[in-house]
UniProtKB/TrEMBL annotation:
This is Taurine--pyruvate aminotransferase. Pfam families: Aminotran_3 (PF00202). GO terms for molecular function: identical protein binding; putrescine--2-oxoglutarate transaminase activity; pyridoxal phosphate binding; taurine-pyruvate aminotransferase activity. Homotetramer. SUPFAM superfamilies: PLP-dependent transferases (SSF53383). It comes from Desulfomicrobium baculatum (strain DSM 4028 / VKM B-1378 / X) (Desulfovibrio baculatus). GO terms for biological process: putrescine catabolic process. It catalyses: taurine + pyruvate = sulfoacetaldehyde + L-alanine. The keyword Transferase applies. Gene3D superfamilies: Aspartate Aminotransferase, domain 1, Type I PLP-dependent aspartate aminotransferase-like (Major domain). InterPro entries: Aminotrans_3 (IPR005814), Aminotrans_3_PPA_site (IPR049704), Class-III_PLP-dep_AT (IPR050103), PyrdxlP-dep_Trfase (IPR015424), PyrdxlP-dep_Trfase_major (IPR015421), PyrdxlP-dep_Trfase_small (IPR015422). Keywords: Aminotransferase, Pyridoxal phosphate, Pyruvate, Transferase.
Amino acid sequence: MHRDISKARAEARFMLEAIHTPDDQLTLEQRQDIARKTVENFRDNINKGFLSYRKSVTQAEDFAYTEWQGQGSVMRDVLGREFIDILGGFGLYSPGIRHPKIVAAVKAQLDRSPQYSQEMLDPLRAQLARVIALLTPGDIQNGFFANSGTEAVDGAMKLAKMYTGKAGFISTLKGFHGKSLGALSLLGKAVYREPAMPLLESVIHVEFGDAEQVERALSIARAVGQGVAAVVAEPIQGEAGAVVPPDDYWPRLREICDHYGVLLIADEVQTGFGRTGTIFGVDHWDVTPDIMCFGKALGGGVVAMSAFFAKARIWECLTPNPFMHTTTTGGNPLACAAALAHIEVMLDEDTPGQARDKGAYVMGKLSELKGLYPGILESITGKGLLIGMNFVDDEIGYKVAAGLFARRVLTAGTLTNAKVIRFEPALTISYEQIDEVLNRLEDTFKSIAV
Ligand SMILES: *Cc1c(COP(=O)(O)O)cnc(C)c1O
């Protein structure tokens, strides 16, 4: 695209005008313009691959579904078409979209100071660290804030290397930890790793849920003198499709790591802050990891926010030079205000308890559907409101995703990756909305079964 300053200004103005226009004053023509331009911009300036990948989004009637406004578990597109959201931004929207108390805290902080000076001591960040230290299991105490889950994982890896003086990691097949060069080294799928190789040296992958494979890998690493800094895993694998490990997995990982003098890192980016029915995923098994990573829901679905936290004795290695790991925007006041408000909402509204009860309800209903439609739904996995609907194959899964979309249920599922579709709504979704989704799901199954 050739440089054109006045066009750049006009294009910026186009969207600013839309943002500043009260929603009931946007004309149909303006709305259609936004939908049309969004497709063009994706095609020309983001990645045209998305348009073919997201067929059920882009081939909708005359205009692609273009998101515009959300509240709770309802997402409206720019033309006013309304969806019930059971994707929950892959766990971002645990308290619901635009929870009023979280939005209010962010607005109040926006009027005071949105970013840090970078030199004075910032009170919100310090207070949030204290709150999280009090929430986390065992003696987890110090933390660092960043913007994305990926950054939290990268920071945790770096801390583990600094503390142990070792380079290696043990990670899990199909595990998801982000796609930066560091986090990608841990990720457990060839398709994303191969083009970026070589990645970090000495990462060993083992199957998720089998602690004995971790033990074997550590004993071999010790025998051949290969240093391992940490074992990294999700308490419940999210991206892999809500995969719950056996109950003795995490307690065994704790024992094995202690035995070999290796750190245990729990990637709670998706499971943290209530998603699985407890505040943290590891709480199901009463395990205290050495380092924990947070992201997604931490900022309450309002501001991007992530963190890694560790025990004080591990953090010691960062104290002589606190600039060993830094970020300019991580843990900014808006993000901290959002996280503090989200934590208060989580405790006041008992969103972990809501996840537990609603999750049990959904799992029960899905089991009934599985009995009625065995040729479609193969199994149901997960805990709390991190639920995986496992279909018999990709094609059936894609038909379900497209069918749900046509029935205005927002979910994820692409042509090539739809065997497992996550049922991961806001923890505050109402039972009426859940029932409505289940009705539309059954309706979709019926249409596929004939
Ligand atoms: C989403 C996710 C990440 C990456 O977080 P981003 O905010 O997308 O960078 C890392 N780990 C887990 C377990 C995740 O689910």
